[in-house]
Amino acid sequence: MILPRLVIAGIKSGVGKTSIATGLMAALARKGLRVQGFKVGPDYIDPGFHTVATGRPSRNLDTFLVPRERILELFLRASQGCDLAIVEGVMGLYDGRLGDGSSSTAEIAKLLKAPVLLVVDVTSIGQSAAALVLGFCKLDPEINIAGVILNRISSPRHLELVRGPIEKATGVRVVGWIGKGALPALPSRHLGLVPALEQEDIKEDIERLGLALEASLNLEEILKIARRAGPLPKPLETVFPFKAPAFKVPIGLAWDKAFNFYYQDGLDYLSALGVEWVPFSPLKEEKLPEGIAGLVIGCGFPEIFLPELSSNKRMLRLVSQAAAQGLPLYAECGGLMYLSRGLRDHNGRYWSLAGVIPALCRMEGRLAGMGYRQARALRHTLYTRPGERVRGHEFHYSRLQPLQTFFPWAYSWSGTANNVLDGYAFHNILASYLHLHWVGNPKLAQRFVEACRRYQKKKLI
Domain 249-460 belongs to what topology? Predict the structure, then answer.
């Protein structure tokens, strides 16, 4: 299959990749092209901007969360019917997991045989930028760096000092340059960029970003580079079933400003297994959707919305009752926090929550957990078996504090000093700080759907 495609990579974090990738998607979509966005790594926030820019759900490509052999399937499946795929990288082009460099932008670029546009922040640098770009080109000859985008150019003279030497030393064309302060800033706070779903004016902001990139980049040259990408082979194996079950199982999906961090391919995989997603808002609604046979509460930033979540007593009570009645329930990170008895915020104020999990959460002044994890399941539940391994990623500022001596931890993994215990696992409930990708953990996904089907049949009898 020949699919025009590009990877937008940076020399490091903070060079403007997200703004440039999102603006490029918006600019090309404005021209009538059907653009599919992707993000390398486990990040949830950047794909939200891609989705607004293209009108299509953006996807994550991560070889730790999902085996390499399934990445191509996800990429081709999402790109069907598209004119162009644009992949935003993570950190610097070659940055990946310590030791082997896996889960890097370079790995994904090679896997997809995709040309790379390298974003270079040229703040306080002149001709030496040529040596920098030359090094990126030479480090791995399998990487096709096909174009360079210069960001934060301070003057026409600065552009002259940088552009010519790069093209002369590397033979790679500069396909665009952006003046310092020329790009509209995406709103941020102490946790990073504010998710798109929380921003009222995000469509207008991204439209302005697209116009700025249209004026700064050589879009025709960029499209030529994308169209030079060669054919991709068919995946050697597929994880998605060829045909979804005819009998659907309705599962409630927490979806609002507080809970919106989900891997789209993971949701699609469960849909392919027969799930009918029923979105609802723990923030605004006062009852669970009728007839659901399961419940998924993902992550987001619930700590930002504690007054609304804590005051919605009826929803909290109904979630607790449903869990007690055996409704299959799966939660991650912010969902784990929501299911706890309560949370103490950064100011020391306590907010009562669902009380499904006999534990409290406490916000910390610094990161309490971050990074990829290969975890071992500790308990037999509807979804897990003791000793099974799952792969996930954690990023959180809160800690879970059990309120009872015997606490049914969900997982353990090796930490820097000792084994780390995480989450809560009890029969129909599985909740933890780990963000799992359902495609990377298909047994867990299948068992969850099967448990929901059994619950549905029991309620119908």
Answer: Rossmann fold (3.40.50)
pLDDT bracket for residue 245 (50, 70, 90): confident
Residue 299 a catalytic site member: no
Residue 435: phi, psi to the nearest 5? Answer: -90, 115
Q: Choose, from 82, 137, 333, 452, the residue flagged as catalytic.
A: 333
Mean pLDDT of the chain: 95
Report the DSSP pairing between strands 398-402 and 340-344: unpaired
Give the domain 5-227 fold: Rossmann fold (3.40.50)
> Tens digits of per-residue pLDDT, 272-322?
999 999 999 999 999 999 999 999 999 999 999 999 999 999 999 999 999
Integer angstrom CA distances of residue 407 from 80, 421, 423 = 46, 10, 10
Q: What is the DSSP letter of 305?
A: G
Cα separation, 67 vs 44, in Å, equals 19
Rounded to 5, what percent of the chain is helix, strand, coil?
35, 30, 40
Give pLDDT tens digits for 76-114: 999 999 999 999 999 999 999 866 777 899 999 999 999
